[in-house]
Design brief:
Two copies of one chain form a homodimer. By secondary structure, chain A is α+β, with helices and mostly antiparallel strands. Chain A contains seven helices and four strands, in the order βαβαββααααα. In chain A, strands 2-1-3-4 form a four-stranded mixed beta sheet, covered by helices on one side. The longest helix of chain A is centred in the middle third of the chain and has 27 residues. Chains A and B meet through helix 3, helix 4 and helix 5 of A and helix 3, helix 4 and helix 5 of B.
Chain lengths: 209, 209
């Protein structure tokens, strides 16, 4: 099993944190996004989407998409559970995952990729050229503010995002907020529950992964 | 258990097709999106996000987000499996789900919600006003063309999207293509595998749901 990875990108980092929480030993192969190694023939042969992270299995099967990789690892290495045990837990974690994905990580990605010069013609990850849309930068700030408010409200009544213990939803939300910070979009001080939770998560060993 | 639903919207329809495939009997309550019943106090009390569909459980817990609702039902009513059995199947279905979600359904949603006059100030679903960005209409056509190509390529080697049998990924891809059609964005004839698969899926009883 080989995880194709790039240290600085948010999605690969989600998977590394997940792996660290489960304490699984997986071979890592670096694909340098800055050198665009992800859209070169060698890598596209392994993963035609050119996206990272990508988990190559020993039987030559492969899994792209960070959360699909986590799903595979959750099923193979269930302890500790990070995607829920009961049907309700699993559903509530998936619900928060999607809220974080659509309203947090996507918005943080739009803020970053539509602004930075280096992503001029690749505002969406993958092998196809997509132009930047400057209006998305301003919109992402609005979306992220709504997102921070919603997460803060949830955390004002729960220690962790999905309501039970620490889960993949906490990893995703941490990454969303960290990634928004790349574009200097940070939760206001008034979101005290969110900010307190963020500092608590930051102390976990896995976050260094 | 009550499913809050609106017949014409794509996400609620995904869940209804999923329920029909599993042959589960669930009470349906209509929330009229056209009359904006989803952002009125009565509904926001049940589901603060104002989104549809929403599954209200008998113990007062609730699940929003279409795929989280499907996850709950998959766990409660595993037969027939629509989200995979083995770790690899589960991961590959989740991988395709996310590809469809981010590159298909999102793009179809952007094409529609950024154009139609009725969504002028609510280009993103939910209770917060978000302005339309006309540049997203043109971009969505490009994204959907890439998406059709990718799905066609996958279906040129597989009978169903995730590689095994019929799964939730087929439901989601069907909805993505149908939804793109609302904006008159349709797969070119050259995508023969995709078009053949679409006609095959259309014949399933569940699609009438």
């Amino acid at each position: 099993m080989i995880l194709h990875d790039f240290e600085r990108a948010p999605n690969p980092r989600r998977v590394r944190i997940f792996i660290a929480e489960k304490n699984i030993d997986i071979e890592i192969k670096k694909i340098d996004l800055m050198k665009r190694e992800n859209v070169q023939t060698d890598y596209l042969k392994i993963n035609p989407s050119g996206a990272l992270p990508f988990l190559q299995l020993d039987d030559k099967n492969g899994i792209s998409e960070s959360i699909a990789i986590c799903r595979y690892l959750e099923e193979k290495y269930p302890d500790p559970r990070l995607m829920g045990s009961s049907p309700l837990e699993k559903a509530q974690i998936e619900m928060w995952q999607r809220i974080i994905e659509f309203h947090g990580i996507s918005a943080a990605g739009e803020a970053f990729r539509n602004k930075v010069e280096g992503f001029k013609d690749r505002a969406i990850a993958g092998p196809n050229p997509i132009k930047q849309i400057p209006d998305l930068i301003e919109r992402s700030k609005i979306l992220l503010d709504h997102f921070f408010k919603r997460i803060d409200s949830q955390l004002s009544q729960n220690d962790y995002i999905a309501g039970g213990g620490f889960s993949i939803a906490d990893i995703s939300a941490y990454i969303a907020i960290d990634f928004a910070g790349w574009s200097k979009i940070v939760p206001e001080e008034k979101f005290t529950s969110l900010n307190k939770w963020f500092e608590k998560i930051k102390l976990r060993d896995s976050i260094k992964a």
